[in-house]
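Appendix B. Raw example, untouched.
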Amino acid sequence: MNTTKLTLLLSSLLFIFSCEGNQKENNFKKEIESSLQEQIQMQQIPGLALGVIKNGKVVYEGYFGKSDLETNATVSENTLFPVYSITKLMVSTGVFQLIEQHKISLEDEISKHLENLPEHWKHIKIKNLLTHSSGLPDFYVTEGNTSDADIWSRLTNEEMHFETGNQFEYNQTNYWLLAQIIEKVTSTPFDEFIINNQFQKGTADIIFSSDLSDNSFNRASRHEFDNEKGGYNISKIYGGKRYHAANGVNITLKELIEWNSRLDKNELLSDEQKNNMWTPFEFGNKRDAFLHGWHTYSLKGGNAYGFTGGSQTGFRKFVQNDLTIIIFTNGYKYFSPHNDIINRVAGIIDENLRDEKALVQHEILAAFLTNNIEEAIEKYHLIKANNPEAETQIEGRSSLSYESTLNALGYLVLQKNKVKDAIKILELNAAENPKSANCFDSLGEAYYADNQLSLSKQTFEKSLALNPENNNAKRMIDLIKQQINN
């Protein structure tokens, strides 16, 4: 074959492969956006941003809705989202940068770097702060207007919650202390250290602020759904600067995508230190699971490392699949949507991560949360008929409990003051599971919430007959008897 023909053939093949790749990405995009629109409708999400990185390439980046329902501002690539506890991933990375520079060690006792600690804190190590295994008492975002001195005084006079290293207990004090250690070791303000060592200097795409009432920059507001009024309120929580290491980062999606790229390219940490950061901590109780500043998440086809922030944002790295998913939202009606979105998008991008159980479960939730109750029940029966194997263990797939799904759904709807719908869902569950004490216990709760006291008592008695050890049923029967007699 002559050179000209060979060149033409190669060009044709490259063109075909390129078209196939583009078509595949277009299919991904359509399926992802269809899934996101369904979530936005079902959960009444005000605003959302999603980034998907596969094999080092951004395969999806999208922006939807409003960053603030009061001002009608639109979500865009310039919108900063508060990522809340995803901030802890930057803190962990900063700690391992200092370890790589031999300035600190995981085994350092915090008393090596911090002064004026109470005696019962001095043995705690940096690794215990990172892994929430310190046993320290906690402080709260609602205490934002309380001075550091008063918070410190209260914390240092409280008893330890457990023996250091024994168990996991999520705690903001751990990261306040890590910020203080970083400042002491580097002689640099904590916020400045994180930005200078992990982000582009001088960028406006990342700002530290735990003050949600600050409107001085282009930030998505935090929306909280009010069940009573059937709409959103905008949160104005003030956490204070001591909360910066725990939840202070506000960042654009593009900037966090760039941060992820630098992490993948070993520009922030070496492979060795990333592996150390992602090594499970050995808790004394041998039950809890946590990495060094990162959560680990199990999904069919692989594990992911990352974190959830404020029940509204999520960051997941499926390292074995070379896939990273970043989701920002700023409100939801029913339940925190980030895990559902991440899992569905992961399955769209990589078939190995497609979880049939989760998909069926989502179908059921969507049926009840986007339709009237009669239509939802019809759709539920159709879903169950089309997925009879979902409750059994087949070919290594995790099973789905229809009973548990309906029970959780019933309580979810009940919490949103849709009592009549909750009763119908839980009546359906009891009818399908006539030997389940738990089904009748839940139904009894719904009848009680609807002030159907006699029916509630009868239902709890049915639950107690099925399970004589049901203490909740015993308590509720006694309570209802007192109310009926009065």
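End of appendix B.
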